[in-house]
Structure formats: structure tokens, C-alpha cells
Amino acid sequence: MPMANLDAQGNSSNEPMIPLHVLDAPSQRFYIAAFYTVLTAWRLYDYYGLVSDQTDSLWLFMKWVAIDGVILYGLPGLKVPWLEWSASTMTILFLLHGLLNGILMFRIPIPLGTWFLALIKVVYYRETAVDERRVRPADILQNPSLILGKQIIHILPEGSAMLNPDQRPFCIGISKTSVELPIHINQTTPILIELLRIDLDSNTNEIITVTSKRIRKLKKEADREFSKYDITSPRVLKYAVKRTGLYRLQKVVDESKLEVQRRLSDTLVVQCPSASVKSVPQDKCRGELSDFYLQADATPPLKIKYSKTINRDDLGFTLLSVHPDNLIPPLTQQTTSGTLATLQDTDVSWARTRHIEVSINETLGISGGWQYSIDEIYDALGNAVNYSRPEENGQRGPARGSPLEQTFTVHERPKAALHGCDSQHPLKSAKGRSRRLPLRLTSTGNRVIANSHHTISYAFTSQDELRSSGEPTVSARTEVYTLQDSYNGPHIREPGLYTLKSISTGFCTGEVLEPSSCLLLNPPEPDLTVRAEYIPDKCAGNSIGLMVDLDLIGTPPFQVRYNIQRKGGRTSLKVEKVDRLRGQLELRPTEAGHYTYEFLDVSDSVYDRLSLKDKNLVLEQDVKPPPSAQFMDLRPKRMACIEEPLAFPVHFSGEAPWTLEYELVHGDTRQKQTIENVESERHTIYTGKLVDGGEYTLALISVTDKSGCKAVLEQEAIIEVRRQRPKASFGQIEGANKMQTLEGKKINLPVRLTGESPWTVHYRRREDSDSGPSVTTFKYANDVLELSTAGIYELVDVYDASCPGSVDELANSFQVLWIQRPSLRVAESGMMERVGSKAIRRDVCEGDEDAVGISLTGTPPYNIKYEQHWKPERGPASLSEKKITAGLSTASIRMETSQAGLYEYKFSELGDSLYDHDRRKFSPFIVQQRVDPRPSARFTDTGKTYSYCKDDEAGDEVIPIMLSGLPPFHLEIGIKHHGTAKPEIVNVPHIESNQYHFHIPHRVLALGIHAVTIRKIRDARGCQRKTEFDGPHVQVNVANIPAISPFEGKTDYCVGEFISYTLSGVPPFHVFYTFEGKDRKATASTTTFRRIAEKPGVFTITALSDRASTDICKARTEISKTIHPMPSIRISKGRTAEVDIHEGGEAEILFEFGGTPPFEFTYTRSTNAQKGRKPQVLETKNDVSHGYTKTVRASDEGTYEVVSIRDRYCAYSKQGAQGGKGGQKLLMST
């Protein structure tokens, strides 16, 4: 029995070298073709180099022969589908490539042009048929429909029967309750069939008899698949069975009561294979094994195909081959006899369905969703069930409750460690307060497992129970805590050592990383002790402050908060930061009075604001500070304008009144001054006007208070006095305070400034006397004043960044003037008339030259734009815009006269070298002129040829002419013969209408072609049109009568022959003839006229005309030719008929003829066609028939077909047609 198709596909010997799942077959063929294209390009490149450089031909030939050999003989090794050619094919290809290499590398010329022309002639050769269609002569000469049909006679062999000749596998399952066993019968009609069935479970035999009634029904169903005329083809009887077992064709009896020859062949019908998954829990941890089973019920050995998907990523399929131990089924040892059991040994238990479980153990190394799906299962016979497409094979999946998929959710394993705390870096907490255990959670996926509760266990050893080495004791208690999220660990309060033991999630246990231990300590509470000493005054001996020593206990750094209260004043809160356990605080008030210092609380890095009120840490002191004075303005330097005073406020401290000594220093000059009895704490010192520029120093020397205690002062104030006042003036442009510029253009007047930026300048326009000055700000000493109006501008005053200034009287004004804009006007003349805003110019004829002059003012060159409006007599108006450039003050505008109508020239834009056009400053100007149309004349039928015969002496020819314009007209007509150089001129005056019939004088015409042209026309306006060379024309042809005669004298022709005639006259010719009762017209460009006889009928020439005579002088004639159809013959109604006879019988062969009797025909008998062999002709016979049918009896086996036929007039040979020679000829009767 054959195995499943998948077995053949899985055979590694037939697989391509590059697996198809890596690169599919079409892509492999594409890359091979691309590589071959590159090699061909390289080959042609070598050929080009050989031609241009004259390199060694033999070396290149040997190189390419070697390359082609490697490529061609190496290609089958790749085993690419469709490219696995045989060795003989590869040898032929190698020889062809070698021939090509020899032609290219040794530069052997190839007549490609001749071959191409010959190919074109063979493929595209056409002739004109009698019905004026282009046909291929080969299609007419080689007409296979003339000889149709053949009869094949078979000598029937003895009948035979066989069960399941194709060795197909069969199975019965849930959705397939029965199968149809094919019984192949040939050349027999059985009336009795016996089948032997061996039960698979009990190994018992059973004979199943198929009655004649059932056989007739089965044969009737089998006959439906064949034509009713086909009674000899083998039939397949499909017998349905519903039980499993081994079936064998035991006996077949035909209608002659004889037993039909049987070929022994056993067919197994088993239970259809099925597969399912033995489900296990779906939640797994990363790194665990899948550990599940595939269950199969099938006939072993079997194959299971399942696919695997990880996180929706399809990883392909796996094919498992399952072969139970100690099982050797006869399927693997089948002999050519085709039997699977003998009469002595009917044990077929190996074909029973077995339940097999296959373990699938794979490491789940990736987190996420895993899915295993059963796709297909194959049993030992090749029966397959496709679960991915269960509609194939008509199968269903396994029963409900037996899943086809195993799904796993693979979870990451958690990891835990402590951060920021270990046994060497303890965690500190205030007594009675809790801290969170600083946990850091990760996982095997290097990130926190989201949406999952973590459970940790940790051991706690109190601080008193810790060993001297810091290790926990055995008595440490274990706590379990569930984390609601990954950021909040458990709260710990008791001091001691906390050690992580384990971590887990709802699905997986995890790993504890280092550091895993944390020591929690409760440091002592902070405390403060103060000691104070007075700070004495060196002048009077009074205390001016306290120096306080701070002694602290706790964990640095510390913050001490205390209050300072002056008697009669407000209380202020101060904070002192101390980084160590000892600190010093200096309390030195700046004002006299009684001060109380109260220390409120103390904080360290663990405890916050422990109150000190119970310790009553309060200090008191009476303070009398020494005298002092300082500037309230603490800027290091102040700027001042020259000749301006400055004020400096001073703040005093101590006991009033005060006496202040200060000095003002400038250069080598010192001015000392004293201020006495200053009662206020704030006093202002005035310097007076600083008349010299430069640097001044105001220094405080000393201050004396009420008690007479004098303090030396060292504070100074620097004054920088400007050396000059700021100034403003207009700069010059090209050496003058005056400029001309374009109207409306932005004006930048140069302004010169001295002083410090920025400057504020007031200016005004002299023409605007009623308005106040304008104000602007400048940033640069050489700046510009932006303006947009002409006039005289004056500077009024100026201020810089700090000081007022003055304006230079010699350069305080600047004049701005506009440059004149361009203008345009039309020059006056006698041909021009002004009407309002328009200038109307005299009418002109179409095509006459005319121009108008214009005058311009401004700055050349000038740019003029005007619109040309054209209104024709009929049709829509048009508008075009034109531009000209004038280099002088005058210009000429050419008037448009090429077409008739009313023209208006509107000058819409004007600009010069300085000004662009401004529609607000320019008024458009219009010039109008009418252009009268030129008259025209044309022949009513321009280009027409008027013909008549030379012998016709009737009246003159009349040619109609159409005229346009204003009558009366004057015409000049030329008549020129083709053989003369000078035409005859005919003048026709005073034509009063627009239509005229021109009569050609017969005296001016001669034999041949005449050209009649209209040379000139003039109308009543004086406008005229000359058309000497390209004017309208007609031709007059005077001709003789042409003639026609046949090439051959015969009147009878066969289809496929040529009918030829000789023509006399002037080509081209028009041949008039009738065929099939229809009048036809053909054109011949030479003196020979021929047509191929495509159809039978009567071909009659009725008339002929040539180029000179046309239809007026046609030659009337009647030359008839009869075209006879080709004879035809059909065997068996024109079809291929097969007749089966027994040895000694006879069959009739019917011949049917078409054509004209009598008929002579030749037929052959050849061997019947066999695959791989060419039929051989066994005998050839000739026969004659005087009627249209003939019957011949034959008893020999073979294929009978006609090779030639002839009737009274024509003959056709199939052998001649196949040999490339003409197969038709005319037979002349005697």
C-alpha cells in the first residue's frame, strides 16, 4: 500500500538544496534567471572587448565553455522545481552554448538580416483575395478541413477485473460511515462478484456476494462518466462498504458464465485516525517544561503534525512519526503480489486502531501566550485528517471534550532585593515610627510583573538578639507579607535585622538577590545645651552682642529654631543650621535695646522639631551698638551728567545725634565737609554741580554719636561724570544736505549722534508748521531717519541714555525732493482723429502695414504695456497683452492688420528706468482702428479633378467659384498644362455677385492634366489678394481609354490559385468586377492585376479606368473566370472513431465526398498510436467513387485515414500540404 503524500514530500532526496520554507520555488527560479542574465551580459561584454581590443579569442572561448559547463551541469544539483532536466537535455544545452561561444568569440558572421526578412515573409506574407480581403495563401493551400476524420480499429483482448488498482487508502469515521471500493473491469460485463472480508478485530473470514442486479446498477452509474459511443473504455464499479476489514476480490463471473481473470490486490478499510490533546493546567512559569500529551487513535505507524505559536508568532509546524515498539506491519514489507494476508495466516490485528499517547516536553523559555495546535494526523495506510481545514477529506475533528489545542500562559518569575539599606548601611527611624522596607522588585524579564500580587517572607531578629558578628539567630521569627503593588513594601517598626527569605506571585516562585538584609536602628533623640558670653564694645565698654556655644546630641545635621524679641518691637524667628555636634552662634543687633533670645526646638536627620521649652533655654541682653553710617545706595559706581548735582542717602546707627565727616575727591583735589547734629537715622548728602568731567570719589571718613564715641568709616561711592553733552546733526548724502528720490520710496536720512545709546531725538517737517515735532529713538551713533514724504526736515533737540544734549545749528536741516514720473501721449497726424479720450486712426486693408507714433517723458528706457482688443466681423472677440521697451523719448507701435475687424489699443501701463507702473498715477489712453478684410475667392470643390475623354468634343467645362468681399470683383485666373512652363491668363472683370461660374475655353485644353488657379482678386474697397503660388486650384484631366487582358487563356480555376491580368494605361488603375453577385472595385498600382481564388464562384471583369481617365473614360469589358471548390472527404462523419472488434470480425469505414464526381482517393492503414512511439504506415490503397459516398469493410487492426483526394477539376494531398509544397492543383479534363 502507498504511504501518505506527506511521506513523499518529506523525502529529503527530492527536496531542493535550498529548502522551500527558506526560499520558495518561484524565487529560486527568478534568482537563477537573474544570474543567467548577468552571465549573458558579461559574455556580450567580452565579445565587445574582443571586437574593439582584438584580444585572444581562444582563451575567451575556453573560459566561457568552462563557465557554461559548471553552471549547466551544476544546476540539477540544486533540485529547483521545473529546472530538474535530464542529462541528455543538459548535454544539448551545453553544446548549444558551446556553438554560441564559438560564433561570438571567433567572430563568425551570422546572416541575421536575411533570416529575419525570410521569417517576416513566412509569418506575415499576405495576398489579396477575390473579395478584396488580405489572406495568407498558406491558409488556403493548407486547408486541413478538406480531409477530416479517421477510424481506429482495435482487436479486443480478454476481460479482466481488479480491486482498487490505484491502491487508494480508505477509512471509516464519525462523519464518514461508508466508503466506496473501486472495482476496475475491462472488456467484460460481470454478473457475479465475490469479495473476501477479513475482520480486523476477530481475524474471521466473510464472503460478500454482489448480485447481478446490484452490478447492473453499479455499471450504469459507471457508464455515466463516458460517452454513449464509448463502450470499450474500462469501467470502475464503486461498491460501498460500511465495516472495517481487509477486502480482496475473490471471484468475478462475466455474461459468458466464465470466470474473469483477476489480479490479486488487498484493500484495507480501517478506522479513520483521530487526535486530541490531553489537557494540563494552563499557567506555567518561565523555564518550566510544557509536559502535556498528544493522544492518537489510529493504525500505526502514524504521523502527527502540530503547529506552535508563541505570542501570536507562528513558529511553523512539527511532524512527529510514531512507531510503537515491536510492531512490524506488512505494509512496510509488501511484495509485488499485492496481498497483505494469506489463506494460512489471516492475522490482521496489526491493522487495528490503537490508542497512543505522545509526550511533548519543551522548555518554556519565553513569557507570554503559547499555543500548540494539532493540524493533521496520518495513519499507516495514508489516511489523513486535516483539522486546520476539516472540510478536506470530509472529516470532522475529535468529539466534544477532546480539544485540539493546548494553551499555556507562561509567567515571568519574580526577583527581589533591597536597595539603599544593608548591614553596613542601616536604615534609621525615629522611636515609635515605622519605615517601609526598601524593596526593589524585578523579574526574569527585567521588568516588574504588572497586575500581579507579590508575596514575600522575611525573617526578623531584634537588635538585642543579634550576634556580635551581626548575623541573625536561630530564633528569628518569619513574617509573610502580600504586596498590593510593586512600590510599597511592608512597614517595619522594631529595631533589628530584617532578612528576605522568599518571593512569589500567584503563579511562580522567585529568587531573592543580594542585598537581602537590612538593619533598622532607632538613634537617640536630639538635645541642645547653650553657653553664652558677652561681646564688649571697645569704645565705651558696653555689650554689643552675645557669642553663644551650641552643644548638640543626635544625628547630624541639626536645625535649631529660636526667637529674637526686642523690647517694644516685633518677634522674629531665626533658624540656625549646624553640621556637627558643636556650633557657635553670634548674636549682634544693629539697634540699641533690650533683647530676649528663646530657643524653641531642635531637629536632626531622624527626628523633627523636638521642643526645648521644658529646658527653658532663654537669654537676655541690653545692647548699645557703636556708631556707624553707610550709603543706602550700594551700587559700586554712579553715572552723572556734567554740571549736574547728585544726592546720596546715608543710614545712621547708634545713639543720636551724630556728626558725620566726608570728603569729595577729584583728581588731586579734596573737599572735606562735616555735618553735625543729625537726629534722623536717614540723611542725604548733596554734592553740588559737577562742572568737570571724569571720576569723583565720595568717601565717608568718620561718625561720632551722642556719647562722643567716634568710629572710623571706610565706605566710598564712585561717581563717573560725563565729559561732554550729547549732540545731534544731519549727515550729508553725496556732499550735500539735499537729495532727490523716487516718489513714495522710503527715505533714510543720515543722522550723526554723540553720547551714549539710546538717543531720543525730536524733529519736524517745516511744511507741517501746525503740528508738533515727532519723536524717534536711535541706537547707533551713525543711524538713519526713515521717512516717506518729501519736504525740509529739521532736528529740534536730543537726549541720550542719561543726559540732555544739543543740535548742531549748521546741520540741523535736510531737504528731500521727488523725481518726476514718466508720461505718454500719441503723436498728432492727419491720419488720426481724436474723439474724447480715444484717438481714431484711418481704416486700412487686411495685411497692409501701419504704425502709430508716441511721445514719452521721463527717464529712459521706458516700459510700455498695452492691451490689443480685436472684435471680428463674426465670432468672439479676443484680448492680448503686449509689452515694448523704448530707449528714446519717441516710439512706434506697429498696428495689427493680419486679420480683419475692429482693433483697440489701450495703453494701460507705463514705467521707466526709475518708476514702475502705478495705476493711481497713470490714466489709460485708447487708439482705435478698423481693418477691412481682403476679398477671397475659392473653388466650390477645391482640389477636385474634372475629367473627360479626348474624343468628347462637347461644350466647355464649367467650374463654380465662391467670392467674399464687397462687390464688384475683378478676377485673374491662370490655366497651366503640366507640360508647359507659362500659364494662360484669363481676366474676368465686373463680377457683381458672390457666386460665379467660370467657363473654361475648350481651346486652351490639350491631352493631359491642367491646373486651374485663382491668381488675384480685388473688391470695391480697393483691397486685393494675390494667390499665385498657394492659391486654391482644381485640375482638368483630358485622357484616353485604358485596356485589360488575362495572362492565361483558361477559364477554370481551383480555390488557392492566382488569377492574373495585364493592364495598359497610366497607373494607378481601378478594376471593376463582379464576384458572388456583388459589384466590387480594386486598385492596381502597377500594370499587373492578380487575385488569389479564396472562394468558389464566377469572377468577371466589367470595367477598367486609370489615373488619366478616371470613371469618365472607363473601358467596358466582360472577362469571366470560374473558380471551382476543392474536393473534400470525410471518414466517420469527420470525427475520430474507435471501433473494437474481436479477432475475425469486420468493421465498416464510411467515406463521404464533396466536389464534382468522379472522385479518386488514397487512404492508409497505420499502427495505432502508442505513447512514446510514432505510428508506422502498414499499407496504402487507392480507390474510385462515382458517387458522393462509399463504404469499405476492414478486419485488420490499425488507424485508417485519407491522404489525398481529387475530383473532376481539382486535387488535394494531405502529404503535400504537410511537406510544405502546394497541396492543390487544377486537373484539366481531356
UniProtKB/TrEMBL annotation:
Nucleoporin POM152 first Ig-like domain location: 160-269
Residue intervals of the Nucleoporin POM152 ninth Ig-like domain: 1042-1121
Domain annotation Nucleoporin POM152 N-terminal transmembrane: ranges: 24-109
GO molecular function terms listed in the Swiss-Prot or TrEMBL record: structural constituent of nuclear pore
Domain Nucleoporin POM152 Ig-like positions: 413-518, 627-713, 725-811, 1130-1211
One Gene Ontology cellular component annotation held by this UniProt entry: nuclear pore transmembrane ring
Biological-process GO terms, alphabetical: nuclear pore organization; protein import into nucleus
Stored InterPro entries: Ig-like_POM152, Ig-like_POM152_1st, Ig-like_POM152_9th, Ig_POM152, Pom152, TMD_POM152
Domain Nucleoporin POM152 immunoglobulin-like residue range list: 522-625, 837-933
Protein name: Nucleoporin Pom152
